Amino acid sequence: MEHDPRTPPYRTADHTSFAYVSARDRWPVIITGMIDDMHRSAAAADEPAKMTEGKRIIEQLATLKYELQHDRNLTPIPDDGFPDIVSYNRELAQRRAPTWFDVPWLYSECYLYRRVNALFASSDQWKDHDVFARQKISAFRSSRRAVLELAAKYRGLMAQLKPDPARDASPGPERSEEADKLLFREMCEICLWGNATDLSILSSATYKDIEKLQGSEARKNAEKNILVDDLPAAYQALKHAQQSQASERERRVDIVLDNAGFELYVDLILAGYLLATDLATTVVLHPKSMPWFVSDVVPRDFADLLTALADPSSFFTNPTVDDERAGRTPQPLTDQEESDVASVFGDWAALHAQGKLVIRPHRFWTQAGSYWRLPAEEPVLLEDFKSSELVIFKGDLNYRKLTGDAMWDPTTSFATALGPLGERSSGIRVLALRTCKADVVVGLRAGEDERLRATEGGGGDSGARKWAWSGKWAVVQFVDGKDGSG
Q1: For burial by CB atoms within 10 Å, which of 123, 165, 432, 435 has the most?
Q2: Quick count: other Cβ atoms within 10 Å of Cβ 298?
C-alpha cells in the first residue's frame, strides 16, 4: 500500500462509480455462474469423494455471495500454500477488515477472485478446476465467423510478409513505409477492440491496396472512438530498434494478456505479425497463473485454443449440449476454411517450437495491488522487462493496475499516472491498449471528459463517468522509459 498513488482509489462506497455497480450487480451474478458451473461439474464427477467435495465448494461459494450481498466484512483468505495469501491478508488487516460496500474497488475485486481460487487450491479433487473454462470455450466457439475470416486474411498476409529464400528478402516496392505503419496500426487495433467484423486494411489483398487506405473514410471511422492514440510513437520505437541493433541481438516484445478465446486468438495474430515483419525476434506472452476475472487468460487456455485450431471441424461443427437443446446443427467448414485454420495453427506451433513465441505466467499479475508496486515487490520481473523493446498491457484491468485505479483528473498525463513505470529512466517502454470499461482514465485533452459526459448515456450531471463504462471508447497510450531524459 505504501507504494500506491497518493491520489485516492475508486471505492465500492461511491454510488456514482462503476465500482459500486460492479459490487452490487455484477459480482453476485458472476458468483452465481461459478455455483452453476460447480453444480454441473460435481454432478458429472465419477467419484463420490469428488462429488462431496464439490458440494462443499458450492456451499462456500454461496457463503461468499451472501457475505457480499449483505455487506459483511471481508475475512482473511485461508492459507492454500501460496505465498501471496500473506500479502492479501496483511493488506486486509491494514485496511481494518472493510465491508464489501466500503473498500477500494481494485483490492476487493482481486480479493474476490483470489478467495475463490483458494477454495479450489485447498481442495483435494478440484485443484486444477477452472470455473470459467466452459464460458471461455463457448465464447470462442461463438466467434467462429470472425476466427475463420481472420485465419484467411492472416494466411494471405503471411504469404506476403515472409521472405522467399529464392529471391531478395528485402522489402520491394510493394512494401512501403506507409503501408507498414498502417498494417501495424491495424494489427494493434484488432487487439484493442477484439473485433474482426469492421476491419478495413486486412480485407485488402496487397500492400498497394493497403497504402491506398491512408486517410480514407474507413480509417477515420475505425479511429474516431480512440481518444488518445500513441500508436505512431510505439511503431517508431520498434522500427528504430530494428534498424539500429545488430541483427543477431534479440529484440523482444512482451504482451501482458487480458482475455482468453477470440482476444487471445488476435493477440497471437499480433505476435505472428511482429515476428514475420521482424519488428520483434521474440514475443513473450504473460497470462495469469489462476482463473481470474472470469475471462482472463491462463496457460490452459493456450492449450484449449490450439486444440481447437488443430481440429477446427470438430470444434466448430460438433453440436454442443446447448446446440442439441436448441435444435441447432452447426454448418460444416469448407475445405478452404479448414486449410486456412491449419495454416494458422502450423505457423504458431512452429513459432512456439522455435522459441520465438514464449508463454510466461507470473503470480504478480494476480496480486491485489497496482503495478506501482512492481519495483518494490518484483524487482526481478522489472529487470526482465528492461530487456524488452516494448511491453504491451492489454485491457481494462491492466490499465486500472497501471494507474493504481485512482481518481486522477482525466487530464493527468499517462506518465504521471504510471508512477515509477512512467519515469523516463524506468528502462521500460509501456504501451496500453485499453477499451474503457471502468472509471479511471488519464491523458485526455481538457474538456474531453465533459464533452463525453454530455453525450447520450455519458453520465451528464449525475457525477458518474458512464461514458467510460461501456467499452465504446478507447485509449492507446505509450511512455518511453528508455530515452533517459527527465
Answers
A1: 432
A2: 22
